[in-house]
Amino acid sequence: MIDEVTKLEKMVHEKTLDLTNEDFDFMLAHIGDPDPKLRDETIYILFCRLFLENGGCLTREKAKLLVNKALKHDRLFEGIEELEPDDLVFTRTFTALLYCILIDVDTKGNYQGFLSALQRKQLLDDAVLYLQKERDYRGFVTRKGWAHAPAHGGDFLDQAANHPEFGKARACEALKSLQTILLSVKTVFVADEESRFDNCIVTMLENEWLTGNQLVEWADKIDQENGKLNFRDSLFLPRMHTWHAFLKSAYFKIKAKKLDDQVFANYIEHTLEQYYLRNGFI
How far, in Å, CA of 32 to CA of 82, rounded? Predict the structure, then answer.
């Protein structure tokens, strides 16, 4: 293993990438290694270079081979049912980041359309499902780096929503995923996760998978659910802080892009204004 790690660390800085099938197997096996140098600075960087640098360093055939390997041993949901947080969260979140890359390059450049119909469906479906199932909301983990599941899950969902085959049915399911995470938090996020998992809202509006009116109906249900909490409830501040941080982030993105006649932005403005008038803070 030491020889393989040393080889990959050196390869990160090589101008030409010449990786073998054995290298791919090792990278996929250690995609969520607790060592951040191996996981973040070596394996993830190599995946980015392989698929994104200069339109992609892999032949189309090798790219398909790597995808086949990744999806055959799909690790996105590995250990996700465990009640106690553990290191498998890194496997899940960095698998999500690899899947972001695969969805992205399926729509452009050298690898456009390289996913099979079944592979594409699996990735798009998984992007919607992941945030519904993930419960490890840790951000930075001492000595192990960023777990950041909500942020990486948001990136995955955003990338999927930008694929032309995402569709309106998945968009409605995506709202269920966001609702799950927004109503499941027990502590305040500390690394701006909300501004990562609201990006798919903007993308779905841009691509007309959803309308502002649909978002208003969805958001109003969450707001009513939060309204059942009173100030003395231990969940009140974490939930309201998360919800309002999400709404404020989405508001400015929608305003900046002038989307959907500002229907959802106007709803957010009214909602936050009413909350302020009742409570004296947002």
Answer: 16
- Beta strands in the chain, from DSSP E residues, in sequence order: 140-141, 145-146
Q: How many other CB atoms sit within 10 Å of the CB of residue 212?
A: 18
Q: SS3 string of 53-79? A: HHHCCCCHHHHHHHHHHHHHCCCCCCC
Residues 40 and 47 sit within 8 Å (Cβ to Cβ): no
Band of the pLDDT at 55, cuts 50, 70, 90? Answer: confident
Residue-level pLDDT at 157: 98
Alpha-carbon separation of residue 248 from 80, 127, 269 (angstroms): 30, 24, 9
- Please check whether residue 42 is in contact with residue 12, taking contact to mean a CB–CB distance below 8 angstroms: yes
CA dihedral 117, 70, 131, 121 (to 10 degrees): 0
- 279 pLDDT band, cuts 50/70/90, is confident
Collapsing DSSP to helix, strand or coil, 145 comes out as strand
Cβ partners under 8 Å of residue 84, min gap 6 = none
Q: How far apart are CA 75 and CA 200, in angstroms?
A: 23
Paired tokens of 211: 């309308």
Using one digit for the tens of pLDDT, what is the confidence trace for 208-219?
999 999 999 999
CA atoms of 89 and 75, how far apart (whole Å): 10
pTM to 2 decimal places? 0.95
* Distance separating alpha carbons of residues 70 and 180, to the nearest angstrom: 27
How distant, in Å, are the alpha carbons of 157, 174, 281 from that of 68?
Answer: 21, 26, 51
Distance separating alpha carbons of residues 192 and 180, to the nearest angstrom: 18
